[in-house]
Design goal:
Layout: H1 18-27, H2 31-43, H3 47-58, E1 61-62, H4 63-70, H5 74-86, E2 90-95, E3 98-103, H6 106-120
Antiparallel strand pairs: 1-3, 2-3
Helix pairs in contact: 4-5
Length: 122
């Protein structure tokens, strides 16, 4: 059986392209931006949250409807919505006693749809 090499290819030399390093270093986002981005991507790392994002990319929904869709308690759905709200992936508004959730903006929909396209592309 052929052994699979899991290592990433690396250079066989020690040449540093300083101009490239300097150019990228100038464009590197600050620590706070990178931290916020890592928190955003962590939020996508849960299938329940992905299902919620998919549902909300289709239609604004209340917590009760999301709970029924996902066969979860309202409390469990609310917990996941809080995570998504904290990274500004979803927003909400109240109509009387009902709280409706939707995607925060078009960027969220674009990120979600591009992710789906990426995994479908082989």
């Amino acid at each position: 059986m052929k052994k699979i090499n899991d290592e990433a290819p690396k250079c066989d030399c020690n040449v540093i392209h300083q101009d490239v390093v300097d150019q990228v270093k100038e464009q590197l986002p600050d620590w706070g931006s990178l931290y916020a981005l890592s928190e955003l991507f962590k939020s996508f790392a849960d299938q329940t949250r992905l299902k919620i994002l998919f549902a909300l990319s289709t239609q604004e929904m209340c917590v009760c409807d999301l709970a029924a869709l996902l066969d979860m308690t309202q409390s469990a759905v609310s917990h996941q919505l809080r995570v998504l709200r904290n990274v500004r992936l979803v927003k909400y508004h109240k109509q009387g006693k009902i709280v409706y959730y939707s995607l925060d903006d078009d960027h969220v929909n674009a990120i979600f749809k591009q992710g789906l396209e990426h995994v479908a592309h082989r």
